[in-house]
Design a protein that fits this description.
- The chain contains three helices and six strands; from the N terminus they run αβαβαββββ.
- The chain has 122 residues and is α+β, with helices and mostly antiparallel strands.
- A four-stranded antiparallel sheet has the order 2-4-5-6. A two-stranded antiparallel sheet has the order 1-3.
- A hairpin with a 2-residue loop joins strand 4 and strand 5.
Length: 122
């Protein structure tokens, strides 16, 4: 895929792949936290997020898992709660000009934080 934005970047293909992974993970967190969720829509929401991310440039693979144990706990009297970062477990693979990077987001309890990490594959 030719990248019309490449002329605006001054970095290696590997650095660009890491950047793209970070953008995707950040958008997942900031676009979807706060969405109403309960047991009836967890599967649909996982698939919807995956499909939305897959249409973005350079995404090879994406996998979204929402912690069902946290979805069912302490729901409001209206029988739902909102999606929070500690419920998300995300992995994705970015391929930019042959440089492949795996990005992930998972909740780190000792930090009380949904940490985003990256690993260069190739």
């Amino acid at each position: 895929m030719e990248d019309p934005a490449s002329k605006y970047f001054s970095c290696s293909s590997q650095e660009r792949a890491i950047f793209e992974a970070g953008i995707k993970l950040g958008s997942i967190y900031h676009q979807y936290t706060g969405i109403p969720i309960n047991e009836s829509n967890v599967d649909l929401l996982e698939r919807a997020i995956e499909r939305a991310v897959k249409v973005q440039p350079f995404v090879e693979e994406v996998n979204i898992k929402i912690d069902r144990n946290k979805v069912g706990k302490n729901q409001s009297s209206y029988k739902y709660k909102t999606l929070t970062g500690d419920m998300l477990n995300v992995s994705l693979t970015i391929n930019y000009e042959g440089s492949r990077v795996e990005g992930s987001m998972h909740y780190v309890e000792e930090m009380d934080y949904p940490l985003m990490t990256f690993r260069v594959i190739k």
